[in-house]
Amino acid sequence: MNKHVPCLFVVALVTLQMSAAAYGAGELANLLRTESDIKQSDLARLGNAVLAKELPVADRSRNLAIIGVVRMETTPRALHLAAANIDDIPQALLPASVRNLSLIPDPPDETTFARLKLTKTQQKALRSCKLDKCRMKLPVHLINTLTALPYRWPDHAETFSRTYRSALVDMVSSYRERGDDALWVYRDKADALHAATGYQTALQSISSAPQLVPEVIRYLQEYPAPPPEGALADFMFWSVLDFGHRPTLTVNHALSIRPDNPQLQYLFAIKTIYANHYFGGRASFGALLEEDALGVPGRYFVLVEHLSFDGKLNRLLRGVVSRGIVADVENRLELVRALAARAAPPG
């Protein structure tokens, strides 16, 4: 298993960051039929279009779930070829919502987050951050460190940014050694939230969630544990996403696997271990389904995203975020199809 392959699916999801979970083809078909308003007739008429819809969740002010589908006449081999090198993906193909996308080496070093450029608003948030009152999601030890930093003009912005990037490297290193125990407990608000708890909430956000593949979930929850049978790539990446309100940094753990299921050609799962805005937790997965697995002719790629917010969103902000993520899912589905077609061998 290659721990460093920058899987195509990372780009495809990079906004939803995927859960270490995967549905079976039957559960996906049921999800399309019963939880969303996507019908088989919609799939039959889909053609070259993409389709993404919200799924019902128990508390809309705190959770969001989306399912997207695109028809793809491709193969797992073409997807693997497309994922050969993240640097080969043309910038013009990346969705506008993806401002940055970078693989995290193992082990991470001081260059890992060198391309992370904080906005002036984020730099100000770091400077003014206080315990239980911060505009970025941070743990108490980092809040205390930032509070103690001297404010010296003109290099104060880089000093605060460098401290933040260094803390991210330490968090990733610790996660690789100790798993969820190393994840941050956010203290930007009075109600502390452990990142691992946020991930669990995201997994459970759909009111009538179908059965998830237990070995994949178990691996992401018990990491660093031996990967499940059939694992192809196990890696981490970070991205900066823009859903229409504030650019959001996410740090993610991804797993791709060739499941022992004739109807599931390929699947991947993404667990977001940190997001500096919005998300208390995020779990995503995608699957390439065998021909006719959804009951209509054709091979489909299905993407499902589960999100839990770090607080209760008002109706206006929730609408902005929802529309932005639905559009991003559609863009990423287009990207997956384009990259797979680009990588397909001639003939």
Could you characterize what this model shows?
This protein has 347 residues and is of the alpha+beta class. The protein has helices at residues 8-13, 25-35, 40-44, 76-82, 120-128, 140-148, 156-178, 195-203, 214-222, 315-343, and strands at 50-55, 63-71, 98-104, 185-186, 193-194, 231-241, 248-257, 264-275, 279-289, 300-309. The strands form two sheets. The protein has an eight-stranded antiparallel β-sheet. Helix 5 (120-128) packs across helix 7 (156-178).
By DSSP (H or I, 4+ residues per run), the number of helices equals: 10
| Average residue-wise pLDDT | 80
Using only C-alpha atoms, the radius of gyration works out to 20 Å
Residues in helices, as a percent range: 25-40%
Strand order of the largest sheet: 1-2-10-9-8-7-6-3
Unreliable stretches:
2-22, 207-212
